[in-house]
Design goal:
The complex is a heterodimer of chains A (about 190) and B (about 260). With about 190 residues, chain A is α+β, with helices and mostly antiparallel strands. Chain A contains 6 helices and 9 strands; from the N terminus they run αβββααβαβαββββα. Chain A has a single domain, classed as Glutaredoxin (3-Layer(aba) Sandwich), CATH 3.40.30.10. The longest helix of chain A has 18 residues. In chain B, about 25% of the residues lie in helices and about 10% in strands. Classes of the chains: A alpha+beta (about 190), B alpha+beta (about 260).
Chain lengths: ~190, ~260
């Protein structure tokens, strides 16, 4: 009987967790569909459960964007293996025209990104605008197909709420931001 | 069973009598090249606009009420704060009633960029880009580009000199421009799809060399046409907004790309 009750409790708490509505201030409220580097479709809400680093980039960018990937890797390297295993990284393209799945896949391989934790994603133009608005990223497409954009690394909690952001990019992480990442990963 | 059906029919008829148009009214804007009041560093302000369709007038309270009635997540009590701040639609008497402070034919205001985008998407449309808006708004009743006419500029500036606490006029009262579009000047500010692309400066208030580091590529946009205050005021206002913000004189209209 005891075992049965425990099993039932586990079952129902699992259901309750899955059905718990998103917090009002979660950016996972956005319902647009994204594709990852493997061509798999997902919604932001499917990323619930683990803290997340998010940034916007595009693969043909020559200057700042490699720095955005460097920044994510920099945070990764500053973590213990146990911390690292709990962190996910999501980079969303500003350039849906050129950043097709194959382009994202190519960069994931070229930069040797850990595909279990790193996701390079694309969505349609209107979704890019909304994502950028939620993340506070401003951008403009230039005549030559490059983009002007503000660059930020954003830390989300397990429910998609913004915990911290930094605009100090580079392979050596912003110390204050890193401390917040570690604090988020230390939560049960 | 029958009384219920009858009731529904009566309700429907009442809805139609209220003047709620099911179709938004679009006009076709021929494309062309024009010079923006913004000096884009990549093109020196020259902008090519493809032919598109634009709503003749801004979206009204009645039209927006119809939208939120059909799309409950956009009702005042239900919208989540990431998409609209607390004052969203605060001039309506309740989430599904306009009340005395919001006339059906007045342009809807107190709407966020997310809500405006959702309205347009629900109608198979989108917000116009800034370039499309600026291009359409350069016209007067007879010319596609009246911007160099001092008299036309004076007329537009006259609006900004009026106090903004007077009730908004119903849409469609101003003369149509050469394309048949009304109220681009003189009624409300309007959201554009890419309002956030006007990188006037990084946090939109400060200026300085340090901000340049935040951009990939080149720096901020400069204002090219100092005489065109009316447009520059719009740019300054829009670039200070976040997408969940609302104000009591910011509305929108939708656009459609042509195949």
């Amino acid at each position: 009987m005891k075992i049965f009750v425990c099993a039932a409790l586990l079952f129902f708490s699992g259901v309750a967790l899955a059905a718990k509505p998103l917090p009002d201030d979660s950016i996972y409220q956005l319902q647009d569909i994204y594709l990852n580097q493997d061509g798999k479709a997902f919604q932001l809400a499917s990323r619930r459960g683990k803290p997340q680093l998010v940034a916007m980039f595009y693969t043909s960018c020559k200057y700042i964007c490699p720095l955005i990937i460097d920044s994510g890797l920099g945070v990764d390297h500053a973590l213990t293996p146990a911390e690292r295993a709990k962190l996910q990284v999501l980079l969303i393209s500003l350039d849906p025209t050129r950043d097709v799945v194959a382009a994202l896949d190519y960069i994931a391989s070229k930069r040797k990104l850990d595909r279990r934790r790193w996701t390079l994603a694309r969505t349609e133009k209107s979704g890019v605008r909304k994502t950028a608005a939620l993340l506070g990223v401003r951008y403009r497409e230039l005549a030559d197909g490059e983009f002007n954009h503000t660059s930020a690394l954003i830390l989300l909690d397990a429910d998609g709420r913004v915990l911290a952001r930094t605009e100090k990019l580079g392979s050596v992480p912003d110390a204050e931001f890193l401390a917040k990442v570690k604090a988020a990963l230390a939560r049960p | 069973m029958r009384p219920i059906i009858l009731g529904l029919i009566v309700l429907n008829a009442a809805g139609l009598a209220g003047g709620v148009s099911a179709n938004d009214n679009y006009v076709r804007i021929p494309g062309g090249e024009f010079k923006s009041a913004l000096k884009y560093e990549d093109t020196q302000g020259k902008v090519a606009v493809a032919p598109f369709e634009l709503m003749r007038t801004p979206v009204t309270n009645a039209q927006f009420l119809d939208f939120v009635t059909k799309n409950p997540p956009w009702q005042r009590r239900k919208v989540v704060p990431v998409f609209a701040e607390a004052r969203y639609l605060s001039h309506w008497s309740s989430p599904l009633q306009l009340g005395t402070n919001a006339k059906p034919q007045q342009p809807v205001v107190n709407v966020s960029w997310f809500a405006a985008s959702a309205y347009c998407e629900a109608h198979g449309a989108r917000l116009p880009t800034w370039s499309e808006w600026e291009y359409s708004a350069a016209a007067d009743g007879t010319r596609r580009d009246a911007r160099n006419d001092p008299a036309w500029r004076e007329q537009i500036l006259g609006w900004y000199a009026k106090p903004s606490n007077a009730p908004l006029s119903p849409v469609g009262q101003s003369p149509a421009n050469v394309y048949g579009v009304k109220d681009l000047h003189g009624l409300v500010w309007e959201w554009t799809e890419d309002y956030a692309s006007m990188l006037v400066s990084a946090d939109n208030r400060t200026q300085g060399e340090q901000d340049r580091l935040k951009f990939c590529g080149a720096g901020a946009i400069a204002m090219d046409d100092r005489e065109n205050y009316a447009v520059l005021m719009r740019v300054a206002m829009l670039s200070a907004m976040e997408a969940a913000n609302i104000t009591s004189n910011l509305g929108f209209r939708c656009a459609k790309s042509l195949p």
